[in-house]
Amino acid sequence: MNANYKFAVVGAVGFLAAVGNAEAAGELRGNMDVLLDIGTGCAVNVDTSGGENQWGTVDFGSQASLSNIIDAESSGTTSANQLEMTCNTGLPYAIGIDLGQNQSGANTRRMSGVVSGEFVAYELYQDAAHTQVWGQIGTAGELQSTGTGAAQEYVVHGRIPSGQTTPSAGSYKDTVRVTVRW
């Protein structure tokens, strides 16, 4: 019996040596979590190439006189003529536009010209009928909305009222700050 045992042990060792490092095919399974955290907020589709958000232009074009009303709409930097925003579904937000760099008094927006002291008054509106003046955040003129989770587009409507004295020829400009708060 002892001889049979030795033969079996030697045979098993020989078999394992001949097989070498052979491994059996196998399979392991486990779980991997895939996560995303959606923060509360809004994203505005704007041009940021100059280091600041550039939300488009309201261009009244070239005019010979200010005797008639002159209307214009915003032209966006990334979409046709809109300020485009995407906010969380159900998130209330507001868009406000300040009175610009050349304001006069409490509520008059003005573009300044090449000649010192010459200005052209204008106004910005939320609607094409020019009845809802676009005001600053925290005022009755701010635009209020609620996010849908999809892009929402807004057009800024500009108007130069008639009856102003036509100033010297040249370019007139103002810069307004647009603020979005949620």
Assign the structural class, choosing from mainly alpha, mainly beta, alpha/beta, alpha+beta, or little secondary structure: mainly beta
Beta percentage is: 25-35%
Helicity level? under 10%
Tally of domains: 1
Named CATH architecture: Sandwich
Q: How many strand elements?
A: 11
Order of SSEs = HEEEEEEEEEEE
Here the CATH topology equals Immunoglobulin-like
Low-confidence stretches: none
* N-C termini distance: 89 Å
What's the main sheet like? 5 strands, antiparallel
What are the key terms here?
182 residues; mainly beta; Immunoglobulin-like; 5-stranded antiparallel sheet; 1 helix; capsid protein; Spore_coat_U/FanG; virion
Short summary of the structure?
Pfam families: SCPU (PF05229). This protein is mainly β and 182 residues long. The chain is built from 1 helix and 11 strands; from the N terminus they run H-E-E-E-E-E-E-E-E-E-E-E.
Describe it for me?
- The protein has 182 residues and is mainly beta.
- It has one domain: Sandwich (Immunoglobulin-like).
- Helices cover 10% and strands 27% of the residues.
- It has one helix at residues 2-19, and strands at 42-45, 57-58, 70-75, 83-87, 92-97, 109-112, 119-125, 143-146, 151-154, 157-160, 178-181.
- The strands form 3 sheets. Strands 2-3-10-7-6 form a 5-stranded antiparallel sheet, with no helix packed on it. A 3-stranded antiparallel sheet has the order 1-4-9, with no helix packed on it.
- Strand 6 (109-112) and strand 7 (119-125) form a beta hairpin.
- The model has no long low-confidence stretch (mean pLDDT 86).
